[in-house]
Amino acid sequence: MRLCCLTGLLLTSIAASVFAAEDIMMERVIGTEVPGAYKHPCTITALNNGDLYLAYYGGTGEYEDDSKVWGMRKAKGSDVWTAPVCIADTPFLGEGNPVVWQAPDGRVWLFYVQRYGNTWSDSRVQAKISKDGAATWSDSFMITFQQGMMVQGLPIALKNGDYLLPAYFETGHDQEKTDPDTASFFFRINPRTNTWTETGRIVSDKGNLQPQAVQLTDEHLIAYCRRGGSFDPLPDGRIIRAESHDGGATWSRGTPSQFKNPNAGIAFIKLQNGHLLLVFNDSISDRTPLTVSISTDTDKTWPFKRDIAVGDETRDFAYPVAIQTEDGLIHVACTTDNRKAILHFTFKEEAILSHPVK
Predict the structure, then answer these.
(1) Which of 44, 90, 197, 207 has its CA 20 to 30 A from that of 20?
(2) Phi-psi bin for 77: left (phi > 0), alpha (psi -120 to 50), beta?
(3) How far apart are CA 180 and CA 115, in angstroms?
(4) Is 126 in contact with 146 (CB distance < 8 Å)?
């Protein structure tokens, strides 16, 4: 379904604020119809059989204990997503921030946050696995018992076979801001021994969270992170950048990058051809526009940038997640309508490379 020929129902939901283009396809995955109004950070993975699998957490609100993790599937060759199915729910506790990812060995992982108090600083991280392509899931198991631990963002498989799961330690008990010692790190998973370790933390002046990493060489990795602090606009509000030169074991201090950040999530991946792709909100105050930028020289320069969705004070595009499927297509999913709906964009890299920065 192309943006320029959306149905009347979809136009009513998305409105004219969404950018329309022939080379970017968009679909509305789900809205307020089921199973409740609230739908926030979504995650997506491409399964080995060609299906797409999407998950999110939802309920009556962000801090409500009725929130659960829901999963949806779009079968290969289909234009329809299945109805959401609950895949993680603990009585009397709220879930959040699911991450779904199929590892190179075929195992599908579901990581998510379990909130034990009134803020996310009271969270722990849990997980499930699936051995049948996300058809069924194991019982949940705890990744860490340490208070304040969270995940958000897709893991990557390192060249040595280990996995890096983006994570962060959130401090502060104000629902409208995080404390400056909020810091990003990664859980390092050795799938051969099923052992878990933590990398060094990325610290920065205002704090940072929700890192996303790419591996350039065996030893050299780059991470971009959401800035911490409050949601107030900051003239110097930028995505935080850090590097590792020992295979992801330790990380440099985080420093502001060239990219604006309104205290919002990002997506950062390496494409099949080695190019780097960053999805973010190109603003210091709002979660709009939804912007895609590409580096063709391993993060030295970012000469290509395009807004794939543009909103206003009532239309946001939050928590993007990005993948590239075997056919080369780039998929970006995000939440919109103030955390009430999920959008899915599909495009070729050329759709961004055709827009050099002026």
Answers:
(1) 44
(2) left
(3) 21
(4) no
Residue with more model confidence, 327 or 172: 327
pLDDT band at 173 (very low <50, low <70, confident <90, very high): confident
CB 55 within 8 A of CB 100: yes
The encoded tokens of residue 260 equal 């604006």
Tokens of 172: 């502060």
Q: Which of 56, 143, 67, 154 is nearest to 108 (CA)?
A: 154
Beta bridge partners of 3: none
User: What is the mean predicted confidence (pLDDT) over 81-87?
Assistant: 95
Q: What is the dihedral of CA 71, 158, 138, 128, to 10 degrees?
A: -60
The side-by-side arrangement of strands in the sheet containing 68-74 is 38-46, 52-59, 68-74, 85-88
CA distances from 353 to 266, 271, 310 (A): 19, 13, 19
What are the pLDDT digits (tens) for 58-80?
A: 887 776 777 899 999 999 999 99
**Separation CA 112–CA 149 (nearest Å):** 11
Percentage, residues of the chain above pLDDT 90: 79
149 contacts: CB under 8 Å, gap ≥ 6: 123, 124, 125, 143, 167, 168, 169
